[in-house]
Amino acid sequence: MARVFVTGSTDGLGLMATQLLLQQGHSVVIHARNDARAEQALSVLPGAETAVTGDLASISATIGVADQVNALGRFDAVIHNAGVGYRERRRIETVDGLPHVFAINVLAPYLLTALIQRPSRLVYLSSGMHRGATARLDDTTWTSRSWNGEIAYSESKLYNVLLSFAVARLWQDVRSNALEPGWVPTKMGGPSAPDDLSKAHLTQAWLCTSDDPAAQVSGEYFYHLRPRKPDPSTRNVALQDELMQECERLSSVAFPS
Description:
The chain is of the alpha/beta class. Strand 5, helix 5 and strand 6 form a beta-alpha-beta unit. The model has no long low-confidence stretch (mean pLDDT 94). The protein is built from seven helices and eight strands. The longest helix has 22 residues. The protein is globular, with a radius of gyration of 17 Å. Helix 3 runs parallel beside helix 4, helix 4 packs across helix 7 and helix 5 packs across helix 7. The two termini are 29 Å apart.
């Protein structure tokens, strides 16, 4: 039995992955943005160990989430599932002055990875939209560009893969992988999304608990339980390091080597 922490687990793919893990007999701690959402999620996930709360749009609140998780002891795996989509039509600024999409999709998983006691496995949710995106690490805050929600989202999903591969390289005792769940009809994906929702949560649960040798790898990218080639730029070590440095600059939290 594994002990797993899942961010953004009150609905969508996070909820589905949590339900699957509980059905498989694993112990799961869930995450919600606030106490009301946590209470609601626990009512439909009666087998969950407990919930931690905090808005991942805020640096201080994300650090608080890491503190809550660490107070519960070590976890075998963490699924970085929480994220926001590509439909934001304007640059929504967080309390820290950062774009909402970057803060939740990129900086929060960086902070949680850096601050939570090191697990054996880490899983990061990306998207097929990361392919073809350009890493604009000179303007992660979108202060010198006109806002484009779709591009901002695609960049954030590129950064998720870069982060996953950087962690795999820096922490060789941890299996760190990324995946795309497919364009599925969740609240984020929309009702017309064409991919199979029933398969969208399987890979993250498999990567963080399975004894299958195919799941016991690191620095790889997956789609529906199978390896898939990520954008070639994600293998660029200098780009990985640049992302880590940018996240440290914005958060004032260094990544443990």
